[in-house]
Design a protein that fits this description.
The chain has 263 residues and is mainly alpha-helical. 73% of the residues lie in helices and 6% in strands. It is built from nine helices and four strands; from the N terminus they run αααββααααααββ. A two-stranded antiparallel ribbon has the order 1-2. Strands 3-4 form a two-stranded antiparallel ribbon. β3 and β4 form a beta hairpin. The radius of gyration is 23 Å and the shape is globular.
């Protein structure tokens, strides 16, 4: 079984796939970081670890059923949609991606609403409002979607099951090592958290588009994420060195000639 590693090309594919799995897992880490942030402080590290371990378990289980996963692309029924000339074949993959995309849209929009309405701060001040069970249920749902997409990528890049399993384990180890750093950074900086939630909405839209057999190149999305994050890093650095901008107020006079301010 390990004889395949005598081929240098296998090592190259292992490194490439590990890197791709880490990149694809960033969405998962961001989502876990945000939802785990609603737990009490003393449970957040445990929630992150359990969430990522669940993701690892899902990926390995799905790898054991590669043939089933590949066949999940086959239509199980067809729909006649008025904007399509031919019948639309719906597969299990389409259903999973659609459900995951809608879930991400709903969850991210709710989190943004809570943050803008000020509910999140009051909740966190009370030491967290969510229970571990509710958080893990949300993580399980999104882990399933991201794991499905991750395994399809692995199947397309590598021919050997053992290479896929090792790449998944290595990538998950890397994500576990950096999960706390990413989580703390996202939850400490409100603007970064809002940016992360916006990207989760974008990922949700991408999943829905893929469910309808469309395609948005992932390179564009990850470049947009990286570029926006770099801009936000510059803004954060600028905010530390420059005092807040004070808006100029136009001076006016009342009927008695006394100075006043135009609000």
């Amino acid at each position: 079984m390990f004889d395949v590693f005598s081929n240098p090309d296998v090592w190259l594919s292992l490194l490439t796939l590990t890197f791709m799995e880490v990149v694809l897992g960033i969405d998962n880490i961001v989502f876990i970081s945000i939802v785990v942030g609603r737990l009490p402080k003393d449970q957040q590290a445990r929630g992150r670890t359990i969430g990522l371990m669940l993701a690892l378990v899902f990926r390995i289980i799905l790898l054991m059923f590669i043939s089933t996963i590949v066949n999940a692309k086959e239509p199980i029924f067809t729909l006649n949609l008025f904007w399509m000339e031919e019948p639309f074949g719906v597969s299990w993959r389409d259903i999973i991606l659609l459900a995951g995309g809608l879930f991400l849209l709903a969850k991210s929009t709710t989190e943004i609403h809570n943050k803008l309405e000020g509910e999140e701060e009051s909740h966190n001040a009370a030491g967290g409002t969510a229970t571990m069970g509710k958080i893990l249920l949300q993580i399980i749902v999104i882990d399933l979607v991201f794991s499905f997409d991750s395994i399809l990528t692995a199947v397309g890049m590598v021919d050997h099951l053992i290479v896929m399993v090792i790449a998944v384990i290595l990538s998950m180890g890397i994500m576990l090592a950096f999960a706390k750093v990413i989580s703390d950074f996202v939850n400490t900086h409100p603007t970064v958290k809002m940016l992360a939630l916006s990207f989760l909405i974008l990922i949700g839209v991408m999943l829905i588009v893929e469910a309808f057999h469309g395609e948005i190149p992932k390179g564009y999305i990850y470049f947009a994420m990286f570029f926006s994050l770099m801009v936000e890093m510059l803004n954060m650095k600028l905010r530390k060195s420059v005092p807040p901008v004070q808006l100029r107020q136009n001076e006016i006079k009342d009927n008695d000639g006394n100075p006043g301010t135009l609000m």
